[in-house]
Amino acid sequence: MTENPFAEEPKPTSAWLWQVFTGVGLVILLGLHFIANHFVAKGGLRDFTEVVAYLRDPLILCLEVLFLLCVTTHALLGVRAIFLDFGPSELAERRLDQVLKVVGVLTVAYGLGVTWMVIR
Amino acid sequence: MHDYRKVSRASRWLDVRRRKLGMWAYALNRITGIALVVYLYLHLVVLSLLLRGPGAWDSFVALARSPFYLTLDVILLAGILIHGLNGLRIALTGFGIGVGAQKALFTILMIVSAIALWVAALKIFRI
Known about the structure:
Strand content of chain A: under 5%
Oligomer: heterodimer
Number of domains of chain B: 1
Distance between the termini of chain B: 55 Å
Distance between the termini of chain A: 50 Å
CATH topology of chain B: 3 helical TM bundles of succinate and fumarate reductases
Shape of chain A: elongated
Shape of chain B: elongated
Number of helices of chain B: 5
Number of strands of chain A: 0
Mean pLDDT of chain A: 89
Mean pLDDT of chain B: 87
Low-confidence stretches of chain A: none
CATH architecture of chain A: Up-down Bundle
Helix content of chain A: over 70%
Radius of gyration of chain A: 18 Å
Number of helices of chain A: 4
Radius of gyration of chain B: 19 Å
Largest interface: A-B, 42 and 51 residues
CATH topology of chain A: 3 helical TM bundles of succinate and fumarate reductases
Number of domains of chain A: 1
Helix content of chain B: over 70%
Largest sheet of chain A: none
């Protein structure tokens, strides 16, 4: 790592590009999520009935699922970048990638499962 | 010694004393990123209350409207704004846009974050 990160441009690896694309997506989706759930909702949060009605809207459901995919990908790629700061071996990096993929799939499956059980 | 160097290299971004603005930007991005990952998983755990029905969720909602939780919301929003806007700067400079002006860009974006946070905090506490 250099003393001044401003002096070093990030290398455009596919992981970095995914981090950027999901990050840009998050600026929009997280903005919508935060505004819809905390500023538009009466009292700052939706009660149970309102949450169910909100998630049953097909457009909202698509946006929330896209948000879940983007935030999970972005978060785990960020965790990966931090681990890479420790300079792991190639084997450790491969293992890390495998673990993060499993964590990512489980996270998305959990989110989708909770959503499905709420709206069914 | 080798392992110590790796740990030392990675932990340097936690120590921003006597560092330039770029190191502050880098450290802020890492620290807010870790905090937001922790929050993401806490948030997912809290959402499981929905599976316990209206009683469990509505009790949590009542609790979340307390000043303590609203303060946590403001702290969360600060992390999101700093990480999000600083991240946009990193993305732009990564594509070669505004590389020469990135210190100014960082300063401007952090001022924008502070203003947005102030407006949002007023809105959050008025709800």
